[in-house]
Amino acid sequence: MAQRQMKLGFMMHGNGTGWGDWRHPDAQPGASTDFAYYRRQAQIAEAARFDFLFVADSVHITPKSSPHYLNRFEPLTILSALAAVTDHIGLVGTLTVSYAEPFNVARQFASLDQLSGGRAGWNVVTSWLEGSARNYSREKHYDHATRYRLAAEHLDVVQGLWDSWEDDALVHDKASGRFFDPDKLHRLDHRGDFFQVEGPLNIARSPQGQPVIFQAGASEDGRDFAAARSDAIFVQPGDLAGAQAYYADVKRRAAGFGRDPDTLFVLPGLRPVIGSTEAEAERKYQAFTGLTSIEDALLIMARSFNEHDFSQYDLDAPFPDVAHVAANSNRSTSERIIALARAENLTLRQTAQRFATPRTDFIGTPEQVADAFGRWFTGRGADGFVFNNSLPDELSVFADTVVPILQARGLFRTEYEGTTFRDSLGLAKPANRNTTRRLAAE
Amino acid sequence: MAQRQMKLGFMMHGNGTGWGDWRHPDAQPGASTDFAYYRRQAQIAEAARFDFLFVADSVHITPKSSPHYLNRFEPLTILSALAAVTDHIGLVGTLTVSYAEPFNVARQFASLDQLSGGRAGWNVVTSWLEGSARNYSREKHYDHATRYRLAAEHLDVVQGLWDSWEDDALVHDKASGRFFDPDKLHRLDHRGDFFQVEGPLNIARSPQGQPVIFQAGASEDGRDFAAARSDAIFVQPGDLAGAQAYYADVKRRAAGFGRDPDTLFVLPGLRPVIGSTEAEAERKYQAFTGLTSIEDALLIMARSFNEHDFSQYDLDAPFPDVAHVAANSNRSTSERIIALARAENLTLRQTAQRFATPRTDFIGTPEQVADAFGRWFTGRGADGFVFNNSLPDELSVFADTVVPILQARGLFRTEYEGTTFRDSLGLAKPANRNTTRRLAAE
């Protein structure tokens, strides 16, 4: 059996990932709506044989939102544009199940999948900002448990619609006038608690069968959902020990759902800081820490606590008890912050600053960063990584210095394995449920 | 003042416009999900200096739907991909207000507008197939009057969101840490009968200010809506006299709404058949008529009558009385069919066949087709046309033979006037309502 290799994604944020990144001397603050910038980065990532591009999202802003949320491309549209200027790289877009009709979601991802030749992925999220509901004619946002029930049903509908057409349904026989085989076109007729959708979908399956499913679950519900339903999990990493525990847990859950755990990829989002020397890497890291004020650091943290007002607390007292705020919020991140503050007995100021500019294992020379990647990967803390630094030159530096080391060590591909995103991931094309059902009945 | 010039759009349907087009010897039946096909046609249209590409849509199919509805790209995704491989041509997508959240619609068109450098257009439709509701967890489709009230409010919300950011709101001052001017970012706070949307939108205005609005109104409500709110009207043409009457009517309505009627473009969709001789053109036309069976012709017509079952009538008796079916349907088309059948005293069979393969003024040599374009244009039956024949070679033939004649006669541009879609149309960038309001208050 071939050596296990890591999967690499690139998180696309035009003007930087952190709150203050746009202030970095190298940053282009308008990059988040600059298609040329996105195209250039996508092509660098593809030349380096990355598995996929990843576009995050949110559907509600206020004047206090992070600059990189305020003005940016919508995921499906930017990914479709990038499909036209790339050939191999996967295209993963975030889209909330809370505020988009499953028929529209199914169609847009299927269309992206078709126009990219089978390279689409959907990062399924349940929006966690209370404000989102107010952009969608709703009084209140769903609670945490309801959101996961809704997410499961939404995904049922979308994946069901994706199988509307069997792979050989389109006959295109000009002589007889038979465009398709009606026995191979299927209505869904879904009638559930949240959705009633008849179908069929008005677009055929792509070369990869169905788009790849991403998730980011940290709560009990979230981990089960991800382990049961997703092909890849995007994780916010803490330290290696924590990553290993999470990894083991979701793989165990996947096995519990009857899955081969190797078909579920755990992918922490990382922000390597690479210097030609350790000292240069440290200088680059320090340059980031100065970009975010303590006021902004509190606001950044508040996003994971339902916009909780942290300015009411003493900055230099121990981190306040806000566990009750975390319960119906972005639980993975809020619980990680609380745990960090407790473990190291940090003040509110220290916690916020540490969260705004984390110090990770991935700061150093190319060799050191490659070592850290290898340690996390072979140590089963990760199946790969999402590179999360979108300053103009950082991806190039990584591609030019770290990727060749990973390739030399046999940890990362040197050529794409096939043409679709599933080919890159080594995932089989899923059988069409309607084909399976029809053949079983025959 | 410069000579008035016609506007030209290209209707993109991969595998043909008519029901039987995919059976044409030249047709590529899988073209509707073939990105390379779309790219090639888009680039031909741009090389010929067309104003825009137009993507039609529908959100419900059955096994009886026209082949060109069954399997095709979703408009926003294919247009975004085309944005990446074109530089000047406008990108107009159809999207129904009935089943898409205004916040999502505003974002996706704004994102397309940004990534194309200001070339987006939205064809605002109210879905007219009863079945559509069943793909969107709704019991019943809205009635005609309600749909237009909803459309007006939906458009209010979308256009309001598009003005969330004033043009100079993004300051990007790295030294002071001021990313934007909060006085120039505006919530919408819309509270209406159908929608409650807070805003602001999380994407700034594009170089053209707002996407261009298309509409296709034929009923009283529809004509008023188009005349009041749209920049361009897509029309299904009958004869020149009918086109002139429609043209005069909507221009008069536009003036009644206080608009300059010259900023509203009436654009019939046409399917020219061009031959190097009249005889060749006639042969090409006849080749189309044989592609659609009478059974299919009845189904095609049924689409404009809520999928009414026409097989219950005698094919060779006079066209049946189905005016009651037309009332809550695609009124423009259904009323035109009824009027045609009455005026020429046609049987059901004759009406269906005529509708499936219309014989128009636009069949002949390049000179004859250019003459017809000129006659409709200078005779004020149209301000331009949407070329509606997507067989592989027909656009090239038109571009190579008819366009040069129109250009030589001064009726069509030889170079793009600017960089945005509004530049091509000669439409001013609209003032941001929030800027206007803020300056008035100062």
Automatic annotation (TrEMBL), chains A, B:
Keyword Oxidoreductase assigned: yes
Pfam families: Bac_luciferase (PF00296)
Span of domain Luciferase-like: 25-381
GO molecular function: monooxygenase activity; oxidoreductase activity, acting on paired donors, with incorporation or reduction of molecular oxygen
Record's keyword terms, sorted: Flavoprotein, FMN, Monooxygenase, Oxidoreductase
InterPro entries from the UniProt entry: Diverse_substr_monoxygenases, Luciferase-like_dom, Luciferase-like_sf, NTA_MOA
Residue sites binding FMN per the record: 57, 94, 144, 148, 219
Family: Belongs to the NtaA/SnaA/DszA monooxygenase family.
Protein name in UniProt: LLM class flavin-dependent oxidoreductase
Organism: Paenirhodobacter populi
Lineage, highest ranks first: Bacteria, Pseudomonadati, Pseudomonadota, Alphaproteobacteria, Rhodobacterales
